[in-house]
Amino acid sequence: MNTTAAPVAGENVIIKPDGKILLKNVILSYPNLFEPFKGRTAKPEDKAKYSAKFLLSKDTHKADIQKLGKHIVEMCVKEFKSKLPSDKIFLRNGETTGKDEDVPFFIVSASETLRPVVYGREGPKGPPVSKEDADTKAYAGCIVNALIQPWTQNNTFGKRVNANLLAVQFVKDGKRMGRAQVDTSGDFEDISSEFGDDVVLDDAFGDDEINFEG
């Protein structure tokens, strides 16, 4: 039985005293959690990064989106004395991506050159999720908690508010995104009876050493 608590309005974005932000009960999208990735628009000198996007529903996370947006505005005013354009911050309205599937969400983008920790439901008390378990515990569409570290950028590359990706925790299964694996189990038959025992190569040759170099 699934005992995972349902999202509570306003309690799914937790801003910690040290500046880190915990996003709870969000949808994992475009996960690159075990191998660094370079985007198609990346420059040759750009480093590959671990990254992910997290979808906050405009229905269940409405108050959380407002809370996060307000925090980003406060960061902008403190650092830049003004707001930044929406394409210069790590929180984006899904209506601006040009993808119909993004419209019901606000999207948090986060990345990091260091590999983030991926936890199971037990958190740090249990073993971390491995790359081999990604298909069941860190796939696009599953529900996760995510820990990010926002930071302000003000240099020759421009002004931005970015977010580093620190850790992800699997919460529960969700609707998978992208192409689903095709079920081929009904397309093959058991043909094992058509063959005898496999030949053991060690027994197929004598004791004489064979020179394959001549």
Q: What kind of sheet is the major sheet?
A: 8 strands, mixed
What is the C-level CATH assignment?
Mainly Beta
Q: What is the CATH topology assignment?
A: OB fold (Dihydrolipoamide Acetyltransferase, E2P)
| Oligomeric state as shown | single chain
Mean pLDDT: 88
Order of helices and strands: EEEHEEEHEEH
Question: Strand fraction band?
Answer: 25-35%
Low-confidence stretches: none
| Cα shape | elongated
The CATH architecture would be: Beta Barrel
Number of helices: 3
The count of DSSP E runs of length 2 or more, i.e. the number of strands, is 8
Q: Estimate nothing, just give the exact number of structural domains.
A: 1
Measured as a percent range, the helix fraction is 10-25%
Using brief descriptors, characterize the structure shown.
eight-stranded mixed β-sheet, 214 residues, mainly beta, OB fold (Dihydrolipoamide Acetyltransferase, E2P)
